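From the thread on structure requests for the teaching lab: each student submitted one protein with a one-line request. Submission from student K.M.:

"Model Apea-like HEPN domain-containing protein from Thiospirochaeta perfilievii, C-alpha cells only."
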Amino acid sequence: MINITDEKWKEWNIEKDKHKFFTIRWEELFNDKTYESWQVRSTNVKYLLNEIRESAIISNKVKVHHTNLNDLIEELEITIKSDNIINKYFSSLLFYTNKISKQYKSIKKSDNPDFIEISELAQYGIIILNDYLNKNFDYLEEILFSEENNKKELNTAMQLLAVELHNIGYSFEYIKNSFQILQTTQKFEEKFIKLKQLFSKELIEFECYYLLRTSFQLETLSSHRLISVNRNDLPKNRLTELFLNQDLGCSVIKVTVKSLDKITAAIQGRQLLRNLLALRVIYEPDIKNQKMHPIDLIKNDDFEIVKHNDDIPLYMRKSKNPDSNYINLIRSLELFKLEERRYIEASIQYFRLSLMSSNDEAKLTNLWIALESLFQDQAGTIIGNVTKNVAAITTLNYLYSTLIAVSKDLKPYIRKIQSDTEISNFLEKSNNYRFHPYDLNKIFLVDTDSKILNKIKACVSDNPLILNRLFSLKEGMYKSSKNMKKHLTIHFNNISWQLRRIYRVRNKINHQGSLDINISQFYHHLYIYYTDTLQSIITTLKENPDWSIGSALNFRRCKYDFFIEELEKNTTPNIEKIYRTDIDAQSETKAWTKKK
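Reply posted by the TA:
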C-alpha cells in the first residue's frame, strides 16, 4: 500500500475521503507487493458463464455428468448474489442463470444427458452482459460522486471493474499504469472521465518487433502476420537503437497483432512467434531454445518500447537464511520414511522444473504436477484430495497472513502509534520499527470497547483504506466466533474453486494447447498453495517422522475442521490460539472457550 502525504493529496487535487480511498485502493489492486487476498481477482460472472458454456460443450461430446459444471454453477450462484452491477442493471440475467441450475439438476437424473441447452443459456447470458463494462463505470461513478460514503460498496465496485478490465484483454501493467492519471492536478471528476476513456475496448493494430538469433532462415509467413525486417530499414532514434543494441547479430522479426494495449500486444506477438518456432523441433529435435530479449519495439502511431521484467516475482523471493534452511531440510528428510522422502524429493524436482520453464504454460503444468504428486497415497480423486486439503491448509494460514498484511500497512505509523503511552502499554510485542501481528490480534479480541483501536485509527486518519480495513476486521471477521467461521468458510470455498479452476486451465493447456489470460495470476496463486502445503507437510512430519504424507495432510485437515467446529460452538476468544490458529483436536486448550 502506498503512503500518500497531505502535501501529495493537495498536489494531486484530491480532497474527498472517498476519492482518496479510490486512489490508494486502485494502486493496491495491481501492486505485486500487495497481500494476494487483496489483489485483483481473476473471475466474475461473465468469466464463469464462459467456463460453463465450454464445460457444457465438452460434456455433451463425452456424454458424462461433468463435475466441472456442478462446481461452476455453484460458484456462479454465489457470485451473482454479490455482484451489485448485475442486480442493478442486468436483473434479466437471473432468468437464464436460474434455468441453467434447473436444467443441470434435470440432466443429472437423465441416462442420456444433453448439455446443449446449458451451453446456449450461458451464451445468452454473456450476450446480455455485453455492456457490463460501461455499466460498471456508471455504477462506480454514482458511488464516487454521491453524498454517501459507503466504502464497502465502493471497494466491491472497484474490484468488479478491475476483474472485468483484465478479463476483456487489458494487461495488468497497462491498468496499473492508469494510476498516473490520478496523480495529475486535474479535478477528480476529470480524472475519472479520462480513466473511462482509457479503457474504451477498441482493438488497436500494433506492429511488434522482436530480435531473434536463429541458425535458419525464417521466411515471411504472411498468413501468420509475420515478416522478416532489415535492421537498417528501421528509423534511427533513441528507442530503436535501445531495441537493436540488445544483440547486434540478431534478425528482426515483425508480427502484426490487434490488441487493447501495447503490453498485451507484445505478449501476444511473443506467443505467436514462440508457437511457430516450436514447430521446428519436429524436424530438428536438438535445436536450442530461442532466446527472447527483454525489450520489444512496438508501433501504433509512433514507436514505443515494452520491457519484459525477468526479475523473480516478489512471492518467489528466497528466504532470509537459505543455507541454514537448506541444511535443516536435508536433516529433516533423513528422519522421514523412505517412501515419503521420495515423494517429497520428486515433488520438489517438478517444482524446480516449473521455476526453470520459459513460458507460463510449462510453469503452471509442472507446478501442478509438483502439487498433485504429494497426494499419491490418498484414496479418492486427485482433484478432490487437492482441493479439500490445500484449501484447509491455506485457510488455517489466512488469519495470520491477514494480520501480517495489516501490520505491514501500519508500519509507516508505528512511531506515532508508540508515542501514545496508553497504546504502547497495551502492546506486548511491537516496537518502534514494527507493529507486531500478535498485538493487532490482541486489539481485535481484547479491546472490547475499541478504546485502543480508536486511538490507532486517529494515528492513521490520513489513510482511509487502512481505516476501513481496521473497521472491517473488527466489525466483520472479529465481531464473533460465528462471523469468523463465516469468513473462513468463504475463504475455504474461494480457494477450492480457484484450485479447480487452475486444474481446468492445466487440462486445457494439456489437451487443447490453449492459454488463459489469467495464467500468470493462476501460477502466482498455485505457487503460494504449493509452498504452504509442502511446508505444512514437512513441519508435521518433523514432529511425527513415522507418519505418511497422507497422514500429515489428514491431520492438517482435521485441525481445520476442529477449528471451524469450535467457532460454531463458542464465543469468547483465546488470544494465543486465534493468533496462529494452532488448533489440535486432542488439545485441552481451545481457541474459543465456551460462553458462560
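TA comment: The radius of gyration is 26 Å. The chain has 27 helices and seven strands.
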